[in-house]
Specification:
The protein is built from 13 helices and 3 strands, in the order ααααααααβββααααα. By secondary structure, the protein is mainly alpha-helical. The chain folds into 2 domains: about 80 residues, Orthogonal Bundle (DNA polymerase, domain 1); about 220 residues, hpI Integrase, Chain A, CATH 1.10.443. The protein starts with a helix and ends with a helix.
């Protein structure tokens, strides 16, 4: 069975082009399913049948698994069953008739536009936590090799960069400001913003090139405030943090390596707490950006393209958020609500 698991993992990663997170989750689910099959008397994938899959899911539910978890595990079982049948490991696609429990989809937490602005301003006004202070910070005014194309498009003086006295500002603060601006301005995922290289930014057209889920590439625009934050970071922040491990990464950690998603989440939540805002994550800023676009009149298909959703159904949840806000305002203000 171990060989089947390894081949299935390779299929997910190389043929289906699934993310490492999805591969890990599906493989974990499959190992659990096959272990259950062995306990039920099976000895190979060919012994798997619909009854075994259903009893496995029932056992998961008895152990308290959430509906969303059960839905994912059912999807993993169906995907493996289809693959195993095509490769001759199963005589029939045993899990094809399997129905998934519909996961309860909660409305995402979003900030109001003024709250999102306050979050970004918390970094611009030097109010809020950061990660460890850099030990190699030194004043440099010229972007190193690899970022020259962007440097030539920058404004000529620090007064045009984001934040007060950008040339003297803490480089980590400049990095934090750019992180917050990009997350809210573009609605990209935290993994996508951390994966940006300097060359992925076209400051002339004010767009970034993003590599999203399934290695799908898309171009996302950003606004003037984010451009100012980018100018300040590339002129007065990144050169002071850049080190031997920086390579072409746009956003750097305090020690010069590529900023990781865990640190980015901590930065966002820390500034939100410092500004007295509701608890928010980078994904919450993504929700906020999408909601504000739709409330401002953006087309649903355009928002789908910006967010990198493969299905319009994923984007439609933001219309529910807007409706819920309208309903809440109605209940609060209408005398016969």
């Amino acid at each position: 069975m171990r060989e089947a698991v390894d081949e299935f993992a390779s299929h997910l990663a190389q043929v289906r082009n699934r993310s490492a997170h999805t591969v890990r989750a599906y493989v974990t689910d499959l190992v659990s399913l096959l272990d259950h099959a062995v306990r039920s008397g099976g000895s190979s994938p060919a012994d798997l049948d619909l009854a075994v899959v259903r009893s496995w899911l029932a056992r998961q539910r008895t152990m308290g698994a959430a509906r969303s978890t059960l839905a994912r595990r059912a999807a993993a079982a169906r995907t493996f069953s289809t693959w195993a049948h095509r490769h001759g490991l199963l005589p029939i696609d045993v899990a094809a008739p399997l129905a998934s429990p519909r996961a309860h989809r909660e409305l995402p937490t979003v900030l109001r536009a003024d709250q999102a602005a306050a979050l970004v301003e918390a970094a611009a006004t030097d109010a809020g936590p950061t990660d460890a202070r850099p030990t190699n910070a030194h004043p440099v005014e010229v972007e190193p090799t690899g970022g020259a194309g962007l440097a030539t498009a920058h404004p000529s003086g620090p007064s045009q960069a984001a934040g007060p006295a950008a040339a003297e500002a803490d480089p980590v603060r400049l990095r934090d400001l750019l992180l917050l601006e990009l997350l809210y301005a573009t609605g990209v995922r935290v993994s996508e913003v951390c994966g940006l290289d300097v060359a992925d930014v076209d400051s002339g057209r004010r767009v970034i090139r993003v590599l999203g889920k399934g290695s799908r590439e898309r171009t996302v625009p950003y606004g003037v405030p984010a451009q100012r934050a980018l100018d300040g970071w590339l002129r007065h922040g990144r050169p002071r943090l850049v080190g031997p491990h920086s390579r072409n990464a746009l956003l750097l950690g305090a020690r010069g390596g590529r900023l990781n998603a865990t640190t980015a989440r901590r930065i966002v939540s820390g500034y939100a707490e410092a500004a007295g805002l509701p608890r928010i994550s980078p994904h919450g800023l993504r929700h906020s950006a999408a909601t504000h676009l739709l409330e401002g009149g953006a087309d649903l298909r355009a928002v789908q393209e910006l967010l990198g959703h493969s299905s319009l159904a994923s984007t439609q949840i933001y219309t529910h958020v807007s409706v819920e806000r309208l309903r809440a305002a109605y209940r609060q203000a209408h005398p016969r609500a």
